[in-house]
Amino acid sequence: MFYFANIAYLTILVLLNILCVSTCQSEETLEMVHVIFRHGNRTPDLRSSYPNDPYLNNSYYPYGHGQLTNKGKNRMYLLGKALRERYDRFLGPLYTPNILDPVSTDTNRTKMSLELVLAGFFPPHETDLEWQKELNWQPIPYNYVSSFTDNTMSIPFFSCPRYTLLVHSLHASSKGIEFRKKHSQIYEQFIENSGADNVTFVLIVTTYGTLTAQ
Ligand SMILES: *[C@@H]1O[C@H](CO)[C@@H](O)[C@H](O)[C@H]1NC(C)=O
Ligand SMILES: *[C@@H]1O[C@H](CO)[C@@H](O)[C@H](O)[C@H]1NC(C)=O
Ligand SMILES: *[C@@H]1O[C@H](CO)[C@@H](O)[C@H](O)[C@H]1NC(C)=O
């Protein structure tokens, strides 16, 4: 079904677990932090384009479709720096493998976002881990699982057939039909301007994402 490709590009969460090991003994309360964030600004995704899209033939060179832009990179890097500021005392300056469990969904833009957040979060300059004076950056590993098996952060169209089934049956249900009837003017406007047919809730969401990116 055509939803599947669109949905891949909604898999936008990046998760960063910060586990406290040794640096937080003086903390009375804080023991663990979970940070969940989206990827940075991106170019429009070809698979979420609509028939009347005036930018349909734009290749978005040199980024490509659905990729993190320089603005998005900067935003993610600044997010890493902001997290450093907030949790500096909790974490201490040194990266050690067990204090952090960075996880991304399986898309380029979320992986790149996570790398940039980690770059801002653990700059090695003037620590024992500084390895290269020209580059205030150190490699930090992260993990991801394929969208087809990710049942935590990815939208479950890939990993859960029952979810897909339920979304389809919601469309066909009297509630779904009633909803579309109630908002028929918006639906008609959407169809007229986008050129799309078979309009679903998901298609509207992904089109909105494309318009925002453009
Ligand atoms: C995109 O390119 C195709 C093939 O060259 C052309 O037919 C179409 O009109 C172009 N669409 C837009 C929106 O520029
Ligand atoms: C990363 O981007 C390239 C180029 O668009 C694409 O071929 C590849 O499938 C992407 N990888 C993932 C995991 O999204
Ligand atoms: C829309 O739905 C009809 C009936 O299910 C199908 O024949 C047609 O191919 C669909 N169109 C698109 C663009 O998916």
TrEMBL record:
Keywords: Disulfide bond, Glycoprotein, Hydrolase, Signal. CDD domains: HP_HAP_like. The keyword Transport does not apply. It catalyses: a phosphate monoester + H2O = an alcohol + phosphate. Pfam families: His_Phos_2 (PF00328). Residues 1-26 form the signal peptide. SUPFAM superfamilies: Phosphoglycerate mutase-like. The keyword Hydrolase applies. Its EC number is 3.1.3.2. GO terms for molecular function: acid phosphatase activity. Coiled coil: none annotated. InterPro entries: Acid_Pase_AS, His_Pase_clade-2, His_PPase_superfam, Histidine_acid_phosphatase. It comes from the Eukaryota. It is an enzyme of class 3 (hydrolase). Belongs to the histidine acid phosphatase family. PANTHER family: ACID PHOSPHATASE-RELATED, PROSTATIC ACID PHOSPHATASE. This is acid phosphatase. The lineage of its organism: Eukaryota, Metazoa, Ecdysozoa, Arthropoda, Hexapoda.
